[in-house]
Design goal:
Order of helices and strands: HHEEEEEEEEEHHEEHHE
Number of helices: 6
Shape: globular
Strand content: over 45%
Mean pLDDT: 87
Structural class: alpha+beta
Low-confidence stretches: 1-21, 24-28
Strand order of the largest sheet: 1-2-3-4-5-6-7-8-9-10-11-12
Number of strands: 12
């Protein structure tokens, strides 16, 4: 099980390349530093991709507290490395500007913003028979009205299973609910936007903003070096999917994929 946990550290780089908070297990997991590269939509709802390079860090303090930083998301766990977990969370929420699509580029720009909040979860590591790790996690994030009002709530679950001592496969599912202000900020089309772009005006409401799923593989390359790769699919729901810019110029299905390399110790 220790080797299983060590190998999962490599997926931190997939999480970074996906620019998403993909939960990782904690039991006997060594420290990690690395980098990931991947492709992701230029904005939420856009269909054109951009390439990004992002860091991945995992560190267990001398007191046994776990700090994780994968791409734009970081959290600090005051709970156990297994069992119940909780603590503060922070996320860099990317906005929208200078996109490739000629029509979407005429919509108002959205600034990047820092979100903060907290998370709670539970992790179970099976030590008998075929080892596996199951984790559920939820977080609430807001930006205190800097770009949007209200908050968003994320709920997800992940499962990892070894295929050999050096190769592992994992997957996860989840969903996001968001305030009306959040959904309208990122998917609404104002009257001024409609005049500039030719898209129909759209006033978005809150609710289920997306569902998502991912699959990843990780393996030991040599010694302390581990690699990972995977794909992350988000499907916009509700008013986010019904937005005129998503329906006419974007895509409700948002695919992110990438690979990473990390050093564990």
């Amino acid at each position: 099980m220790t080797r299983l946990a060590a190998s999962i550290a490599g997926l931190a780089l997939f999480a970074a390349s996906a620019a998403q908070a993909i939960d990782l297990p904690s039991m006997n997991l060594p420290n990690l530093v690395g980098v990931g590269i991947g492709a992701t939509p230029e904005c939420s709802g856009c269909k054109d991709d951009m390439i990004g390079v992002v860091p991945g860090v995992r560190y267990v303090t001398e007191s046994g507290r776990l700090f994780e930083w994968y791409g734009p998301y970081a959290q600090y766990n005051f709970g156990g490395l297994t069992g119940f977990q909780w603590g503060p969370a922070v996320n860099l929420k990317l906005g929208r500007s200078n996109v490739s699509d000629d029509v979407i580029s005429k919509l108002h720009d959205i600034d990047n913003t820092v979100e903060f909040g907290g998370f709670i979860g539970y992790e179970y590591d099976n030590l008998h028979g075929i080892p596996y790790r199951f984790r559920v996690n939820a977080n609430v994030l807001t930006n205190a009205g800097q770009v949007y009002d209200g908050a968003r709530f994320n709920l997800g679950a992940t499962l990892w299973v070894p295929l050999s001592e050096r190769f592992f496969v994992g997957s996860g599912l989840g969903a996001t609910w968001a305030s009306a202000s959040y959904v309208n900020t990122y998917y609404g089309v104002t009257d001024a936007d409609a005049t500039a772009s030719g898209l129909a005006p759209f006033q978005a409401g809150g609710g289920n903003q997306q569902v998502f799923g991912w699959i990843g593989v990780i393996g030991q390359i040599s010694g302390h070096w581990w690699g990972g790769a995977g794909a992350f699919m988000q499907r916009l729901m509700g008013d986010a999917a019904d937005s005129s810019f998503v329906r006419e110029r974007g895509d409700r299905d948002q695919l992110t994929y990438g690979a990473g390399l990390g050093y564990v110790w």
